[in-house]
Amino acid sequence: xxxxxxxxxxxxxxAIAERVRALAGEVAATYADxxxxxxxxxxxxxxxxFLADLIRELPLRMKVALxxxxxxxxxxxxxxxxxxxxxxxxDVKDRNVLIVDDILDSGKTxxxxxxMVRERGARSVRSIVLLRKPSKAPADVPVExxxxxxxxxxxxxxxxxxxxxxxxYPHVGVLKPGLIR
Length: 181
Known about the structure:
By secondary structure, this protein is α/β, with parallel strands linked by helices. Helices cover 25% and strands 29% of the residues. It has helices spanning 2-5, 13-31, 48-57, 108-119; strands at 6-11, 38-44, 62-64, 67-70, 83-86, 96-104, 124-132, 145-149, 155-156, 172-175. Strands 2, 3, 4, 5, 6, 7 and 8 form a seven-stranded mixed sheet that branches. Strands 1-10-9 form a three-stranded antiparallel sheet. Helix 4 (108-119) links the parallel strand 6 (96-104) and strand 7 (124-132). Helix 2 (13-31) packs across helix 3. The longest helix has 19 residues, at 13-31.
């Protein structure tokens, strides 16, 4: 059972749901007067649950263009060499783009995706993350919308994984120390 693998819950599902609703309100207010709606670019696979909950709360016309960048392959707990698994799908030229990511720590993935979207001619580029590690987040990677600031811990759940497991855990939690290789 997943609960047996967790040391503690860092953010429970109720707090996540409440914050996602508030973030959707902030995003909606930011883009309310923008022509052409919004294109969301989720960074797969970690952002899928956050994305699903966020778009259900957004009252905007929107498109979705996917990108998959692998930074933590397998059981890695520190960022590795990035590999683009899926190039940006969908046209973002002259669109207002909101990049959706699960966590900002080293900033390597988000920096790369922001550059990719700009190179493809987006009208505007903003970013939203569920979690940010302030002690590691670089100042040169702008993030306009942040769900929660968290300690520098390896976290799982709500889309975040360890060795492709725990994405389905409804809370954000910390694994028991003995489970991380």
